[in-house]
Amino acid sequence: MHHQPDGAAFDIVLLLHVACVVVGVVTTAAAAATATRLRRLLGSPLPLPETLRRYFRPGINWAGRTVYGIPLFGFALLAMSQGAYALGQGWVLGGLAVFAAVVLVGEGVLWPAEQRLQAALAQRDRGEAGGEGEGDVTGRNPAHDATLMSRAAVAALVLLVVGTVLMVAQP
Questions:
Q1: Which of 7, 41, 116, 156 has its CA 20 to 30 A from that of 105?
Q2: Which tens digits make up the pLDDT trace of 30-44?
Q3: What is the pTM of this model?
Q4: How far is residue 100's CA from residue 108's CA, in Å, rounded to a whole number?
């Protein structure tokens, strides 16, 4: 058995790895909460609060993409571990599988729904969109996308927590 890796460089990379997880958890929790709040308010004739309109401004959710730093820094930690950790270990492979699932949920469901909502709300702000049950110009229902985004964010959040537990326990 190899010794536990140490040193300033290893510690810094470990902190960056953990920071990516923390930012991923926080942004995913915020996405779930914001989408749920939007879903409740979409049927209201009142204008959406500025906080929601600001969250759904068109653009890429770069903060959410920090999850890509998790395996990046994880591979660096493996390389710096001097043999203490290896890619073939079950907990490492399990972590990679969990990360792959997070990416599938994020890129396949969460972020596309978020981008559709950005477009629908921008259209609504211009006075072009219909009500809650009506689709936007793409034929999509914003309430459906808000529900989809909320559920996908919760799924991604659960996966991130499972991955965190796996990395800490290292079974």
A1: 41
A2: 999 999 999 999 888
A3: 0.87
A4: 11
